[in-house]
Each structure stands twice: as C-alpha cells, then as structure tokens.
C-alpha cells in the first residue's frame, strides 16, 4: 500500500514527525500531503501503482500541491545543482547582465531583480503598475532544452562558471524523467492508462529556473502587495520545486483565501499542478495560487531588519509545444475551455510578465 503523510504548515522537528509517521495539519480541510513515490516507481504491481496514483490525484484535486518523497533523484545531484546555482549568482553583475533574458518564446537567460512581476493579471498595463509599485525581489536564470536551432540557452563562459552548463543540462534531463513518471501516475489516477501522456510531453519543452533571493532590508518589503515573488499560479503541467531550508513558500487555501506556509521538508520535492494541466483536466485538478514571502528578518535597529538569503530551483514542466490542450477523457462531459495550443498559451503568459 502507498504511504501517505500530511505536512504541517509550521516548523516541527523532523525527527518527531517521522517518529509519529505523520506530519499533519489542516486549515479548514486544506492539506499538502507527503506522498512516498517509491511505491509507484519501484513496483511491478498495477494495484500498488494505482493506490499511489490515487493518492496523488486526490491531493491535486484538493490542494493542487504535494510533497514527493523517495522521488528517485539523488541528494548529491540536488546539492551539486544548488552549488552551481550559487556559483552563478555570485558572478559579477556585468557578466550576468550580458546573458539577459530577451524573448518570451525563447524564455532563456538571466533576469535581474525587479524585471519580472508574477501575477494572475493578463493586462500589461496593470502588470507594469504592479512592477513599479512592488517588484519581485529575486533574480533568476532560465534554461531550456539545449538543442533548439533557433532558441539558444545563454551560458556563461566555461572559465567563469566551470561545470555549470553540464550540471544544469544533466539536471534538466533528470527532472524531465521524473515529470514523465508523475504524469504517468496522474494518467493512472484519472483512469486514462499509464502511458497516456508519454507522447504529449516527450519533446522536453520545459524551463529550468534557478532562483536567488538576496538578503533584503525589511523596509523594501513594506509596500502593499510586496513579496519576494507575488501570488501566482504556474503555467504548465507540473512544477517540481527544490527548496533550501530558509522557507518562504506560501500556498493559498482555496477554501478560505488565506495563505499558509509550505514548510520545507528534508528529502522531498514540492510538486504542484500548473494552469495547463488544470485546464486539460477541466479543473478537476487544481492549479493553486502561491507566493514567496520573506522569512523572519534579523534586526538591524529599531526600525530596520534584513532577511536571510534564499535559494530554490524550479523545474516548470510543459506539454509539447505542438500539443493541443483540450478536455481529457473522464474529466466531465462539458468542457469549460476551448482547445488551445501549448506554445501559444505559455508564450502569451510570459510576454506580459517581463519588461
């Protein structure tokens, strides 16, 4: 049988949680469960796979988020990728700026602090006003599949960031493989057949995003609507989020509208549903708003403090850019949305997000 826990939305000693075999908290019936993916990855039993698949789909229907444990990605690989990310963001600003993000179709390159403003708005003027008033306090590096003839990744010279390109391309492949496995679990959970999505996600049209949240004075975070990353949903099928121990991710309880902390749990990946998968499933699977807020600050004086630095890595999983997203079988008789092309949808969302 699959192993299911529920993650508390407050800091708890990990040893206590695991001794109990349960880490749980519900805020008006809102949970982010911790799901052991080994029972899906490592078994030949279809019944065991279906059990874990059912747990995942149930969670995605309720909260849109899970913590995935025993996911198969080696801890050393994750740590190495974080270190190469730190090395990149430590480069001088002029070097990073020379690799600047240029185009929403490419969606590759360096994004300096304040350039992106994530939001649910689709209005360019409204987003520009939000960016001017309360920009996101983060910098990112966006990496796509590396073999496109037209859209090229922006790599720093090898002598400036030794091993960076190789590490990121390896991690890209690792995350794609996990994406395929989780999509297979979703397919089983929706009674579509385990390999339903295989040919719809095999072109690896994903986005690996390295994120750095530098230390910031609390006075800069006091504007209305200000956050390290504003409230938003993601665009694609799934997001695989690798967090450090600092925390700051908050998920909106769809039942109350309140945001609750998704406290980092060692050796897990946060996985959440994106807008295209929600649309594909006719909103049976939930794409949930989330944001990144500043963790507790260190006091400088009576009126000022400074937040700690934070790192995370997000792998934004997408269907093939050529795929048509229309209501899946077993997801209702009346589609809520007309069919849409993956590339058109994602590029349209990106185009209004950046300056």
UniProtKB/TrEMBL annotation:
InterPro entries: DIOX_N (IPR026992), IPNS-like_FE2OG_OXY (IPR044861), IPNS-like_sf (IPR027443), Iron_ascorbate_oxido_reductase (IPR050231), Oxoglu/Fe-dep_dioxygenase_dom (IPR005123)
MF terms (GO), sorted A to Z: metal ion binding; oxidoreductase activity
Keywords on record: Iron, Metal-binding, Oxidoreductase
SUPFAM superfamilies, sorted: Clavaminate synthase-like
Domain Fe2OG dioxygenase: 204-319
Similarity remark: Belongs to the iron/ascorbate-dependent oxidoreductase family.
Protein name: Fe2OG dioxygenase domain-containing protein
Source organism of the structure: Crepidotus variabilis
